[in-house]
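step 4 of 6: structure.
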Amino acid sequence: SKEVWKKGGRMFSILLAVHLALLACTLVSSGAFEKIAVHDYDVFFLLTVMMLIVIIWIIFYLVGTSRCPDAILCKDSHAGPIWLRGGLILFAIFSLVMDVFKIGYYSSFYSCLSAIKIIYPIVQAIFVAVQTYFLWISAKDCVHVHLNVTRCGLMLTLTTNLAVWMSAVTDESVHKAHSKLKKNVTEEIFRWLLKAGMRSNSAEECNCNSQICQIFKNGYFWLYPFNIEYSLFASAMVYVMWKNVGRFIDHQSHHVHRLKFRLFRRTFFVGIVLGLIILVSGLGVLILYEVQVNSSTEYSKKSQALSMYYIFNIVCLGLMSLVCIGGSVIYRFDKRDMDRHKNPTRTLDVALLMGAALGQYAISYYSIVAIVASTPRDAISALNLTYALLMIAQHTFQNIFIIEGLHRQPPKEDHKHDSHQKDLYGLTFVNINAVSLRVPDSGSTLAPGTASGAEPIHPSELVRSLTTPKKMNWRRKFLREISMFLLLSNIILWIMPAFGARPQFDNDTELNFYGDSMWPAIVDICLPFGIFYRMHAVASLLEVYIMS
Amino acid sequence: SKEVWKKGGRMFSILLAVHLALLACTLVSSGAFEKIAVHDYDVFFLLTVMMLIVIIWIIFYLVGTSRCPDAILCKDSHAGPIWLRGGLILFAIFSLVMDVFKIGYYSSFYSCLSAIKIIYPIVQAIFVAVQTYFLWISAKDCVHVHLNVTRCGLMLTLTTNLAVWMSAVTDESVHKAHSKLKKNVTEEIFRWLLKAGMRSNSAEECNCNSQICQIFKNGYFWLYPFNIEYSLFASAMVYVMWKNVGRFIDHQSHHVHRLKFRLFRRTFFVGIVLGLIILVSGLGVLILYEVQVNSSTEYSKKSQALSMYYIFNIVCLGLMSLVCIGGSVIYRFDKRDMDRHKNPTRTLDVALLMGAALGQYAISYYSIVAIVASTPRDAISALNLTYALLMIAQHTFQNIFIIEGLHRQPPKEDHKHDSHQKDLYGLTFVNINAVSLRVPDSGSTLAPGTASGAEPIHPSELVRSLTTPKKMNWRRKFLREISMFLLLSNIILWIMPAFGARPQFDNDTELNFYGDSMWPAIVDICLPFGIFYRMHAVASLLEVYIMS
């Protein structure tokens, strides 16, 4: 084989990514503090250079693979499913709009800014367009030429996306902190901070006073969540492409189930209706909360808004937890085989779900410790404690439900009417004697290490799975209702923090307990992962819905 | 097979570990700050409870597996090699001594402390003794009974070790910060801090004034590094045991090479001699540095000590980098096959090396940014910059060298005089026709997923590896020299930060650039990983030495 040692080939690209990511992380985190002599244009300069290199590499890749017929010998059918690519395009469009707003905003006071602040959104717009096209057409590729160059290029793309994500998240947190500051502290400090962000001394000229400039500014901050999600979606797809470089897929063993998205067939509509109710009422709660918390300085109004927010979330999370437990119970009675095929996309999905949940877990644990240890315990504290506990429970149960769902074999329904079209692999399984004879034989002759990787499947189980009765339809219907309800609930739980609800700061308990520097640091680092979790759960739940 | 879906079985234990680890992390990080109303005895209480549960579980495990003959069907020969277990026992002994010192220290002012402060070291001593015995006899086990209970128990053990590690690292950082504070700021603040740490108000009675109490206190802080390493070593071994739960090892394909530790055979002694010179001069530099930096308040003396420290490190890191590059070049000409067998121990080793290096990388990158952006550039800054750059280079080259070394097949030397004793697997490979016929055959009959996992090895490569000339001995000698030199150099680079050298704080550049809260946070979080990297590199280099 051409590639002697895959790990070694990957090592160099990993090292490249690690170093670039650390450099970007250092600059971004230093640039976030006004006191530190690293400015945001340093960060923008690095990001612009990285994006330009990625654009050039993508063009070379597209030209190179289209010319060379041996470049892509096989495609990974699991990679880049249509809903992920669709979501990517949706977020890409919003990102482009955001870039237009940003260009408009910065060109309002062009004279007193460094040029990089305008070049950055322009380059970013090109980057988003090129990368979206690239991922749309080559997300499934298993590349077999220039392995090392392709790996490095993909890792560079991944790192660039992560760096853009870090920069956007930091930018948004700083902006949030400023707008909080604007209300609480005197105007003077705010002006000083704004001035420190600019290079010129003529502060008057460089303020965003015109109507259109304000619209641009507010517009691009409202569109930030979409750009943040775009970077993460693109990162996930690029990572899967990187895992697939140099991979050979055995087409015989790789039976593709062309599942179709059948939204309005065989459902009771209960899940959708309940989910839509939650979604709409959640939007109402969010708007009320934002208005009440931001406009009024009265304590009673604020605590009323907080109570409303917590109660809605407690109801929503409680329902979702119950539904997830119900789904897991249904899986206990589900006799479908577990799917053990190698599938980098799914492995990544599971890792991201588990990893991103850590962000919300951490916030909740810190909240719980603060509430338990603080002495004045009022109704808000009790609500906050319940909210934190339910948050942990809901993430845990939902992860279990999604992971179990992703690992099921797709339904065997269609094998009744086209069982004669089943591939060779299916036929081997029907012949029980052949299976029981072949498995130990191949296990001893193959290269070592594979025997423990793929445990031989016991024949009796296979027979059971082939002879299961068809009356389990109600289970699948329930699973669909459940996943549709969870999907819609996760969308509203994504919208709330992504569009600015921060009960973590509006409630004083944790701020007083941990102090003004530690608690914002915890929330600002962990919340982006929590927000990403919601969006990623939506994508995974859509997959569970389609598979069940 | 008994276990339908391994991932599902693992999921529950992972969730348990994640929640416990986050709870411990929350309490430990909150307990580190004087301002936050979480006290160290809250942390000690949690840790004591966790350790007691683990002790009980270990006793049950040992009784259970000794009674049930089917419990351990096979052993993983790669897990728990003798030098890792030897190192564990060494660190365990030092940890026990530390616990004795701690008990002595706290019993000096028993009256004004909560009881948990004395119970904690007692329980920890029992925990260390029981766990070391447990790991000594069962590190290689592949358990096949009570899979889920064993997984949860192992994850609990792992989490407890990590929590103890976190607590020890935090405790040490706080102590270091206090002893720095003692010199710089007035005595008053220090007393206030000490008082805040105690519960009673009678500060006079509770001070550590007696001679013996001071000895105990200094003793246990000097022994902290060993306890920290003990927790990490134990965690690594427990993790491998957890990976091996329910694993079946194919004994035919699993050829165990009983490698012996031959220290004084076939070496030129150059590596050892050079390494020992570095080690001894490093110890001298460390002592001189500590004395000069801690005793004198003069700026010139301090900068002299810093220069000496940086120059020694630059020489040492430069030499190590060159040697690593040389080793990697030698590997390029090495015709030994890459070892692709499944080996959880090695996978963990590689992941830990890459992951732990991130700590030092982060510190170096933050240093570089600070030095480049700061304006007054003197000789110390130049040395610091060189030091940071070389640190990054050395970690990178050393990781490449170690990872390549770990993935080589053990030498084929002994197959000359006992080729007739080779196992079945070796014989299959000699018969080239058999190989070329069998590989495609078994690839198509096996369960899917294995085909892409284990790529068929091309026959011509096998023949080449079997017919390589024996004259490559000089290469192996060089590799041995290199790994022995690197091993000794890593020991001194472990000793320096582990026993208190903190040029990151003695040099003002970064402190002034990032401020008094951000730079200590960066160093205190990242340096423990950097220190662990050195110790882990020593263990891995010993393995490379023995294998080459």
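step 5 of 6: annotate
 - The first strand of chain A starts at residue 72 and ends at 75.
 - Residues 272-412+470-547 of chain A form one domain.
step 6 of 6: archive
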